[in-house]
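Trying the structure run again after the queue cleared.
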Amino acid sequence: MGASTVRAPLTRGVFSIYCSYPRLKSNPLYFSVSLASSVQQVRRAAAASMSYDKQLAAAKKAAFLAARLCQKVQKALLQSDIQSKSDKSPVTVADYGSQALVSFILEKEFPSMPFSLVAEEDSEDLRREETRGTLVRIKELVNDTLASNGMNDISPLSEEDVLDAIDRGKSEGGPHGQHWVLDPIDGTKGFMRGDQYAIALALLDEGKVVLGVLACPNLPLTSVTSYDRHNSQDKVGCLYFAQLGAGTFMQSIDGSPPRKVHVSATTNPEGALFFESFEAAHSSHDLSSLIVKKMGVKTPPVRMDSQAKYGALSRGDGEIYLRFPREGYREKIWDHAAGYMVVAEAGGIVTDAAGNPLNFSRGRYLDLDTGIIVTNQKLMPALSKAVVESLKERASSLQS
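Done. Tokens:
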């Protein structure tokens, strides 16, 4: 069943709902939220007969290997004094190494299929003579990671192999065909601090996200609210994976049996916990504070880097995630595709600030209204209302 066979019934079904309920016709905001929820539910149902099991297995393998590479680099980083993202910094090596590994593994797993990868990095800087040393380090790191994780049957990659693998991430994506979407290290500053980061990998099919994998090497296996980094019993390292119509699962990166996870069922905003970006430059903390105050949320925010926030929310660590970047900033699809799928398949809703579903079919960028809001189905109407009121209030204050 292709996307075209789903589109018409979906449109008629939503239109019928709209016409049948006066509440929706009289309240566009409520209808927008209901539409986002309905679209996600119908897409999951329509995909139930389609299987992406092979792609999911390959994605998990690629994300696992990339996580191993990043863990090794971060350990060395934290033992040094380097804290910048210059061409020779460890975080740059990990970024490129992670992308090269994921690209290489995915193409190797599906040699007879057209390969398209939408990713953050390209090799232009690495092809300069002055960065040759960095390229050598990346090549060695990629080959060491492959060899130390049971892939001794693969011939070592050359420098040109690594550059080519990185450059396969230049695809523009779009509404047709299948496209992998990768952020090789989401949460660069968290990575440098020794905090949260994620390897985020998703697959688009005809413009729709059909699977997502989040490898979060520093995310605790228990709730982030109860985690004690000084307690050796509190283990870290989570791998989330979700396939359209099949739910969301979490396991340890070390390979514990996966368990199905679900977003929080909390209905009372007072007890809701909300996530936002650690860096104020990535999202307006003041606006988030105003929104949750209008909702009646009493708890302080949990600030965290990367799409690890999506993972934590998918298993019920909190109820709300708000992201409102600076004006003029364009969200990239790799910053949200995997996290979107992980939360949506766990029963949550992800929309822009106007309640519209996220559209990943328009290339490398997400064209959306103002920001991104995430929560469970029960809290979404109240959250959307608070967002609209807060944005109007902020606009009025800027004009006065």
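The chain has two domains: 26-47+263-395, 53-261. Worth checking whether this holds up in the mutant runs.
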